Amino acid sequence: MSLIKAVFGINSLQEFGLLEKIELSTARAEFLLGHRELSRFGKWDTDALIHAAKTLKEKGHRAILDWDILMDEDVLKRASQFIQSIDLRVFSAVRVQDVGAYQFISSKYPDLPIQFILETGNHNIKGIQYYSKLKNVERVVVSIEIPKVQLEKVIQESAVPVEVLGLGPILLLYTPRHLLSQTPISSIQNKSWFEMQSSQHEIKAIANTEEPGSAGHSGLRVLENMHGTFLIHSRDYSLVPKFHELQSLSLGAFRFDYRSGIELNETKEFGELIQSFAKLFESSENSIHAISAIEKTYEKLNRKTLHCFYQTNATDVLFKKLKNTKILRTDYMFVGEVLEMEKGSHCLVDVQVQDKTIKIGDVLKFITPEGKVRIEKLEKIKNIDGQEIHEAKKGELVVVPYMKYVAPRTMVYFAASEEISNAESLV
Amino acid sequence: MQIKSNSSFRPEVLAPAGNMEKLKAAISYGADAVYLAGQKFGLRSAADNFTIDELFEASDFAKPFGAKLYLVLNSFPHESDLAMLPSFLEDIRDVGIHAVIASDLGMIRTVLEHSIIPVHLSTQASCLNVESGIFWKSVGVSRLILGREVTIEDAGKIKKATGLEVELFIHGSMCMAYSGNCTISNFTKGRDSNRGGCAQSCRFNYSLDGVSNQYFMSSKDLQGIDLIPEFFKHEIDSVKIEGRMRSALYAGVLSKVYKEAIQAYSKSGAFTEKQLQEWMRELSYVPHRDYFSGSLKSSADQESTLNKGKFDEEPHFEFIGAIKKVTEKDVLVEVKSGFKNNQCIEFVGFNDGIVQIDLNQHAGALRSSLGTKELVEAKSSSLVRLPNFNPEILKEGVLVRRVV
């Protein structure tokens, strides 16, 4: 069982300083440093960034340049010019999300390791494995939506170590548009485009809604900066209680990242959290105490955490109910659809059966939108002009006698032999 | 407007086909290609979508028109979803699909390994720059459907640098987030927005720090008809209309308008101000939010969000039905939304030509499906007969609408 690396996203050397009392093995610690121009939530300016990277390197730690923004052509050009103006040798690796950033680094800096952020989508082994085998990739950072059973397989099949978020805010939406600047929140209206592009630009707000069916959309944290607008969950994500389980799965790295934590970073509790997180990587006893300490700090903050998809991800179940499956066509034995019903008079069927006809004597199954089923033998059919006919083919409209419960959008099928043998109208 | 075109290049008009009726409308009204989904793997799980038999039928319908079919596989599949893909690809092998649209790398690699169908990279992959295009070319895609944050000019640069075809959205609803970068539904409602379960949380009415009535995440709708000369100039291969969930009238009218505009520009290197005004009038009458040009000219920002309500309140056309059958004497209309025998309706011809009828002036014109009764009202989910007012224009599939 290999040792998990501890990854910390930090925005100042003071934050690193909070860890100096912890006996954090240099072989296990990495620090994500995000320059304001390259990182969604990074706040480093160039001089401080290089100084921090050198300091960390001198202390034996790995400094990772965090380049996690998505970029149109102009922004990528600016970013890549900036990258080429700094000495990347102080960094142990570069972390990217935009595949264009990967392409740029791997072609211009063939010896520089890359950590690939795959947190958006990428929920299957085939895709993750492909990224893990790309040139220079030393680690993949996977989505928190991957459940444990799947994560274990990902770790086994990935060509490189796998990282997940261990503790930190959950990003729900990322847009390049500056959304808060366009709202009437006091003084921030009508900022110029140039002001919004400034690395000092930052606006925060809390969003709530009372729309019907909008439970779960309260207390959402909104952060706007030069890179756009971010929507963050009201609860934080924590896999801390699962640390030892993840260790046994041979997880490669476990991350602490509060850089988007809107109101947390300046508090005493932030120090408690980062120190406790670091202690997870110490002895078993310290690690167990650390888990408990983190829970206590959250209680003090009166905040909650979640790890919603870690046990299971059933997010495809609820939306299957969006559609009425009773009117969902299946091909097997399909005849057509009822377009019109006149009570006491008739039903009009749009015949869509491929390669066959329907004819007198056929037994048909009608499935109504409410799920009621009628099995009926065709005794009489007419065409749309009222003439009796013996059979009808695809594209024709046929008139059959009115049947109770059969309404427009009723699906019509040939009845199967066991349905015929059981037939009386199953209503 | 007289703007000269210097090339014989013509972008294809790519329209949405949420079901067979919408597909037939889009192609009949001029779409060069349609995108459609099977009952699995797409992002519009509430759309009707196509069974395998329907895909074959769609292909048979499209062939005489020379229209192409692009099959959407743009969800972000989990392991169990991906396992079903090879057998699905086998089922559709003989349909005649011209390309699949996919965003997930696992999905793309599976398609490339199990079929010879070309892959178009979905906008969900957020390909925004030349370097990304180079990466995706190395993966094996043949067209890039670029993110909606890309300008027409940059799309042209990406095309030149990569040698791949490029496609841009030109009309329709816009996501607020970078495509594929929104999981609001996942965490708030337990519905995976990237597997078809988006709950449209961005359209809610929010309060921000106590200030209410903020539709701050609700984007305006994209509309780029006046930028068609730019699409020609930068040789964008395909202009895409969003809206598989929208009506057949939407699919038909938008296909017609954009095709007419592109044909006019292609033929004469220009279109007149009068033509442009007429097309914009048609577009303004299809139900929509406020329009803007997205990021087609420059990055969308100020004035890009709705901020004041859901849909516009301008009068628009209501889709009331489609002609199901035609004889010399009459037409049979499948009614989608009711109308009365004293109202004005319009039959929208496939080519030029709209037949406007004031039913008030045609006593007894509205009859039941079997022709046996005069009607005062045509009810939705029924069929009605009307005289064949203009055999040149009124054909099977022609859409019928009413001004609201």
What gyration radius of chain B follows from the Cα positions, in whole Å? Answer: 22 Å
Q: How would you describe the shape of chain B?
A: globular
The largest β sheet of chain B comes out as: 8 strands, parallel, barrel
Helix content of chain B: 25-40%
Percentage of residues in DSSP E strands of chain B: 15-25%
Greatest interface (CB-CB under 8 A), with counts per chain = A-B, 92 and 97 residues
Question: How many strands, what sense, and barrel or not for the largest sheet of chain A?
Answer: 8 strands, parallel, barrel
Task: Find the structural class of chain B using helix and strand composition.
Answer: alpha/beta
Number of discrete helical segments of chain B? 11
Total number of strands of chain A: 22
Structural class category of chain A: alpha/beta
Which tags fit this structure?
heterodimer; A: 427 residues; alpha/beta; eight-stranded parallel beta barrel; eight-stranded antiparallel sheet; 22 strands; elongated; B: 404 residues; seven-stranded antiparallel sheet; 27% helix; 23% strand
What does this structure look like?
The complex is a heterodimer of chains A (427) and B (404). Chain A is built from eleven helices and 22 strands. The model of chain A has no long low-confidence stretch (mean pLDDT 90). Chain A has helices at residues 13-17, 46-58, 73-85, 99-108, 125-132, 148-157, 193-197, 243-248, 268-279, 284-301, 417-421; strands spanning 5-10, 29-33, 62-67, 93-96, 114-118, 137-142, 162-175, 202-209, 220-225, 228-238, 253-257, 305-306, 334-342, 346-351, 357-359, 363-367, 373-377, 381-383, 388-389, 391-393, 397-401, 411-414. Chain A has an eight-stranded parallel β-barrel, surrounded by four helices. In chain A, strands 17-16-22-13-14-21-18-19 form an eight-stranded antiparallel beta sheet, with no helix packed on it. Chain A has a two-stranded antiparallel sheet with strand order 15-20. By secondary structure, chain A is an alpha/beta fold. In chain A, helix 9 (268-279) runs antiparallel to helix 10 (284-301). Chain B is α/β, with parallel strands linked by helices. Chain B contains eleven helices and 21 strands. Chain B has helices spanning 20-28, 52-62, 79-83, 85-91, 105-114, 130-139, 152-162, 184-189, 228-233, 248-268, 273-285; strands at residues 12-16, 33-37, 68-73, 99-102, 119-121, 143-145, 165-172, 206-208, 211-214, 221-223, 238-241, 291-292, 317-326, 330-335, 339-340, 344-348, 354-358, 367-368, 377-378, 382-387, 399-403. At the A-B interface, helix 3, helix 4, helix 5, strand 7 and strand 8 of A face helix 2, helix 3, helix 5, helix 6 and helix 7 of B. Strand 8 of chain A pairs antiparallel with strand 8 of chain B, so a sheet runs across the interface.
